[in-house]
Write a structure and sequence with these properties.
The complex is a heterotrimer of chains A (449), B (486) and C (265). Chain B has two domains: 185 residues, no CATH class; 244 residues, MetI-like fold (Orthogonal Bundle). Chain B has 17 helices and two strands. Classes of the chains: A mainly alpha (449), B mainly alpha (486), C alpha/beta (265).
């Protein structure tokens, strides 16, 4: 150890600790910059989140409110029931066009009654104030209750999409001049009606309960069929993916020998969790529809595809939950003479239940928002009929909440943009509730060993 | 009778068997369960299993065999020429089935009556028009031969269905009797029930493997059919993508691949720095309370469905980029662009990168940080020169996983990137990706056996291979990394 | 002869390097260190001994403010390095730690090459102006840590590939390369086998010619072998501090005696 006397060449000047040398100042500045980068990045992520939510909510909140024309009129029995016997089957011969005319008459009367003069407006102009759906609604109402004929009834008619757009600020007098679907006169009439309480924006349950509507009547489009379809798919996913996922996890975590075969299964599961969702759509199309001939657009097919996508998620969280149960519990059960199977099913599984439940809810939430695979199995189809109750209804064509959003973005009428944002609000509300439940469950049953 | 009801009946029989078996075990021990080898409910379960398993087995086998029998019979009615290719045979089979299904639906909805069928058999060409009244589309030219084949198919199916119902009920009942007869005190019911349970557990874990196999098979078979009709060289090396409905399409993957990679690159350029820096700040600097607020907020981004991001791209980010950057600078006038999709996808991947990096950074042992700080390094020097290099393999793995996620993302690009297949450098131009084209080729109304539709499977296979490669590589790297610090 | 030489140097350099007065440490609600007063001398090896949880490591970490990295730790009192309070708000712990180096319980080489491990400190503190100078610093430090002959042919091999004893000497070289004035060692031999321990102990004895060395150890034999001064900690109190020989042969406090004779541990 003779080299110990060699002095280090780069010896620092001994300086006071109380004075920062220039280099330390520089390094501290770099330190602060580095921290600021971090804060800025978190800030960017937050801003992106806020922008996203604001953009969706500001654009979509108005979808829950709709303009209705409200007025009283007497339903003319002689035009709507020419035979005069109040038989719905025969009354059905009067088409919606007939009801449209009746509604127009009623509207004109109501407008005149309020001392508004619809100046220079043709019949088509007045008809264009209301949604074509309004006549169909009235027809259904009358056919369901023929006694209404000849009576004074209150009409609650959906206003035309453009009129609705006017009250929501989407349509202006200027844009109306270039628009084939609306004229400035109609907007003026709408304004006058609103001033006299004949027309108003109010909450519209129809947005959540009614089925989709065609391209020409955005004001009538609703989420009813999509919600039902999503509900059915979630049922299928719940019923299939939870038992399969939990069973697979129990095997892999509690019984499987450590060998090449289980290794293959494990790698396979982590890979499945990362396979692009659209590939699952192709799988659904090729296997469930083309090979097994399940019907297109049906919730059962969507549910099966989403089940296959959800199983890896559930397996991963269930295994984590099982692993968190300490071995001493198993030892205790085996010690009193239980079989391994009994130890797992009677003791380990109940203790792991909260974790499994949380994982299941998160898996379901993911499945609920999944869109791409559903496009491929035909759920983009335009479906106006509610599916039947399960189980038969599972095979009926249906839509799904996220697909309905996509569907509406592909429509030409700008009024559908508002509705797709509105649909997303509904979707996010469901996700929020599901995740909140998951968090509460986790908090409530969190257990430290 | 539908498969659903058949299954339900089988389950009902098995439930009865459960009750009877349990009772028999109890009574054979004269009401003293201690004399039994297993708990009484295990005897019940044994009977349940011995009833339901053969019934469901015959059901499954039948469902597989039935199409084979019908195909054979239908083929003999159709009398296809011997030299017909597999593709033609498949197409013919598909036509028969669609006619049969349409007939069933037509009968169910009452557009055609059972009594119309003989007349239709003479002159079936009017069938599509008749069915169209009930919104049943049947895009096939129905020849008398095809109609006959469809009728044979329907008759045979209904006969076989009755047979199935009888067989399932028979097997369930026989199985139940067999099980109940064996219920005696010294019978080891529990061991048998547990063995069956174990089989079920193993079967459940095999489903994951089956899913992968099904994915590969469905992609490979249809891709093979596609390459029979279209040269694989043109597919992989042609720079033109222009599908034409009448045929003679040019289906080169390169422009789609370019769009996919370009958008993914932008997404990673956004997500990796932001995600990584956020993770670093949250794990190394942030106070406990800030972490408790910021981490869940970032994770919200991960819980938002991609369709929401897609809409965000379509109605907010796209127009914003167009009006504020692209148009003033003369770079383009399209709302959907590589930049729009890339930015939004980047936002989507931020939480993915940050939570993976967070795990990985936390796995770096504290002793390394102490070592560096103890030498007088500042925290940022410690992070940059010690923690990050130590975590590098894990972070690379995380980035690869993020890349695979970006490449396979669909809804954001469908709504944000556009549909124009082109290989350009201007990020404010619309381009398109593999996933967009899979959606557009498979949701159109084209004939299923045309190359324009089948190309989607080749695209899907390419996508699957790319993402699978990235995933396996990433998982391997991450696994190796974790082992290093265990 | 050898003993004489060291004794001479002791006399020449035995001025007070660190003065600690009334140092208290709280981890949240627990009072980990209670009113400790210690003087640490240049040219000496000072050993902190005591049962585990007695506060000896906590006190060591106060001396270069490593406790700052633990959010819950709160240090009060006065610790002076060359007469300057190191807990003065004007003091940058970064500058302090360059003067007060530290070696940890478990060898913790960075996952870099041997060369990069040793040159890490000089680089971040900007101690050298050229590559040649840096090479020299690395070599000197490795020689001081008695590692040079073993690694000179593979300076660019990863530091994590060395044996446990070599890794710990690499960590010592890493600390020495920054040319600190005080070297803190937190149970540096607890993860090492006896042969490696002997090498490191020999090294510690060599090092005190240039630094004030403070070593925390749970092994009384080690304290007796390497140190000149010993402080005995018990339940957060500094029970006794004095010449190593005196502490081991003639302890004043009954608690010290009980510990040394193995009655408490």
């Amino acid at each position: 150890m003779t080299d110990i006397s060699a002095h280090p060449s780069g010896k620092r000047k001994t300086s006071s600790l109380l004075q920062l040398d220039a280099r330390t100042k520089r390094r501290n500045a770099a330190e602060r910059r580095f921290q600021i980068y971090g804060l800025v990045c978190i800030g960017i992520a937050m801003v992106a989140l806020v922008m996203l939510l604001v953009s969706i909510f500001s654009g979509g909140a108005s979808a829950f409110r709709q303009t209705f024309a409200t007025f009283e009129m007497t339903l003319p029995a002689e035009t709507l029931d020419p035979d005069g016997n109040r038989n719905p089957e025969e009354m059905a011969k009067v088409t919606t066009i007939g009801y449209q005319n009746v509604l127009r008459q009623g509207l004109v009367t109501a407008v005149r009654g309020a001392n508004i003069v619809p100046e220079g407006m043709t019949d088509a102009d007045i008809t264009g104030m209301l949604s074509p759906e309004a006549a169909a609604d009235l027809r259904n109402r009358v056919l369901n209750n023929p006694e209404l004929l000849g009576q004074q009834v209150e009409i609650d008619a959906l206003a035309h999409g453009r009129i609705d757009g006017y009250f929501k600020g989407r349509v202006t007098m200027q844009s109306a001049e270039r628009d084939a679907n609306v004229t400035p006169q109609r907007l003026q009439l709408a304004q006058a009606m609103a001033d006299n309480g004949l027309m108003a924006l109010r909450f519209n349950w129809g947005f959540v309960t009614k089925p989709d509507a065609s391209d020409q009547r955005p004001e009538a489009a609703g989420l009813g069929v999509a919600l039902l379809g999503s509900l059915y798919m979630m049922l299928v996913v719940l019923v299939l993916s939870v038992p399969i996922g939990v069973a697979a996890s129990i095997y892999l975590e509690e019984f499987a020998p450590k060998n090449r075969w289980t290794d293959v299964i494990e790698v396979n599961i982590s890979n499945l969790a990362a396979v692009p969702s659209i590939v699952f759509g192709i799988l659904g199309l090729a296997i469930f529809i083309n090979f097994f001939h399940l019907p297109q657009s049906a919730s059962i097919v969507g549910g099966l595809v989403l089940t296959l996508m959800t199983i890896p998620t559930i397996i991963i969280s269930t295994r984590a939950a099982l692993r968190a149960v300490p071995p001493s519990i198993r030892d205790a059960a085996l010690g009193v003479g239980a079989s391994r199977m009994q130890a797992v099913f009677h003791h380990v599984l109940p203790l792991a239940m909260p974790g499994i439940l949380t994982g299941t809810i998160i898996g379901l939430a993911q499945a609920l928002g999944e869109t791409a695979p559903l496009l491929l199995i035909g759920m983009v189809a335009f479906v106006r009929d509610y599916p039947d109750g399960p189980p038969a209804g599972l095979f009926d064509p249906a839509s799904a909440l996220p697909v309905q959003v996509y569907n509406w973005t592909q429509r030409a009428d700008p009024a559908f943009v508002e509705r797709s944002s509105g649909a997303i609000i509904v979707l996010l509300a469901f996700l929020l509730v599901m995740n909140a439940v998951a968090i509460i469950l986790r908090r409530k049953f969190e257990r430290r060993w | 009778m539908s498969v659903f009801w058949i299954t339900l009946i089988a389950i009902a029989i098995a439930c009865v068997a459960y009750g009877v078996g349990r009772q028999k075990a109890l009574s054979s021990s004269r009401g003293d369960p201690r004399k039994l080898h297993s708990l009484p409910s295990y005897y019940g379960w044994y009977c349940f299993i011995s009833s339901i398993v053969p019934a469901l087995a015959i059901l499954v086998i039948w469902l597989f065999v039935q199409p084979m029998i019908t195909t054979q019979r239908v083929d003999s009615v159709l009398q296809l020429p011997v030299e017909a290719s597999v593709g033609e045979k498949l197409a013919a089979k598909r036509d028969v089935q669609s006619v049969a299904v349409a007939l069933d639906r037509g009968l169910a909805q009452g557009v055609i009556a059972e009594s119309d069928l003989p007349a239709l058999a003479e002159n079936p060409s009017s069938l599509p028009a008749t069915l169209a009244e009930a919104d049943i589309s049947l895009p096939v030219v129905v020849t008398p031969q095809l109609f006959n084949a469809a009728q044979t198919f329907r008759d045979l199916s209904s006969t076989l269905n009755t047979g199935l119902t009888v067989a399932v009920i028979l097997f369930a009942v026989i199985g139940a009797f067999f099980g109940i007869r064996r219920c005696a005190p010294d019978f080891r019911a529990r061991n048998l029930v547990e063995r069956v349970t174990m089989t079920l557990l193993i079967a459940a874990s095999v489903i994951a493997i089956l899913t992968t196999i099904a994915i590969v098979l469905s992609l490979v078979f249809q891709t093979a059919t596609f390459f029979e009709q279209y040269s694989w060289r043109d597919f992989f090396f042609s720079a033109t993508w222009s599908p034409v409905f009448q045929g003679n399409s040019q289906l080169g993957i390169l422009p789609l691949l370019w769009g996919t990679l370009y958008i993914s690159l932008i997404a990673l350029l956004v997500a990796v720095p932001i995600g990584l820096f956020s993770a670093i700040y949250l794990s190394e600097y942030a106070s406990k309370s800030m972490r408790a607020v910021a981490k869940p907020l970032i994770e919200i981004l991960a819980g938002i469905p991609t369709i929401v991001y897609g809409l965000f791209a379509l109605i907010t980010v796209g127009p914003m980029l167009r009006d504020w950057i692209a148009q003033p600078m003369g770079l383009g006038s399209s709302g959907s662009s590589v930049m729009t999709a890339g930015l939004v996808m980047g936002i989507m991947i931020i939480p993915f990168v940050s939570s993976l990096s967070d795990d990985i950074i936390n796995a770096v042992p504290q002793s390394l940080r102490d070592g560096s700080l103890g030498l007088g390094a500042t925290p940022s020097e410690t992070i940059r020169q010690v923690v990050l290099p130590a975590a590098l393999p894990g972070i690379v793995g995380a980035i690869l996983l993020a890349a695979s996620r970006a490449i396979g993302e669909t809804m954001i690009v469908v709504l944000g990137a556009g549909a124009a297949a082109r290989m350009g450098l201007n990020p404010f131009e619309a381009m398109t990706t593999i996933t967009v084209k899979i959606v557009s080729q498979l949701t159109g109304d084209t004939d299923f056996n045309s190359p324009e539709t089948l190309v989607a499977f080749a695209l899907g296979l390419t996508l699957f291979v790319i993402t699978l490669g990235l995933n396996i590589l990433a998982l391997y790297i991450v696994r190796k990394y974790r082992e290093q610090y265990e | 002869m050898n003993d004489m030489r060291i004794a001479e140097r002791d006399v020449s350099t035995s001025e007070t390097k660190i003065t600690a007065r009334d140092v208290n440490v709280h981890y949240g609600a627990s009072h980990a260190l209670k009113g400790v007063d210690v003087d640490i001398l240049n040219g000496h090896v000072t050993a902190f001994i005591g049962p585990s949880g007695c506060g000896k490591s906590t006190f060591l970490r106060c001396l270069n403010r490593m406790n700052d990295t633990i959010a819950a730790a709160k240090v009060t009192g006065r610790i002076e390095l060359d007469g300057e309070n190191i807990y003065d708000p004007k003091v940058d712990p970064v500058q302090l730690r360059a003067k007060v180096g530290m070696v940890f319980q478990k060898p913790n080489p960075f996952p870099k090459s041997i060369y990069d491990n040793v040159s890490y400190g000089p680089k971040i503190h900007g101690l050298t102006r050229s590559k040649a100078e840096l090479d020299e610093v690395v070599e000197t430090a490795l020689r001081k840590a008695a590692l040079w002959n073993e690694v000179k042919d593979r300076l660019h091999a990863p530091g994590t590939g060395l044996s446990g004893g070599q890794q710990q000497r690499l960590c010592i070289a890493r600390a020495v390369a920054t040319s600190p004035e005080v070297l803190l060692m937190d149970e540096p031999c607890s993860a090492l086998d006896p042969i490696a321990t002997a090498q490191v102990e020999e090294l510690i004895d060599e090092l005190r010619s240039q630094f004030a060395v403070v070593i925390v150890t749970h092994s009384m034999q080690q304290a007796a072998r390497v140190s000149q001064k010993t402080a005995f900690f018990h339940l957060g109190n500094l029970v006794e501090y004095g010449e190593t020989g005196q502490i081991f042969q003639n302890p004043r406090d009954p608690r010290t005696e009980s510990y040394i004779s193995g009655k408490i541990g």
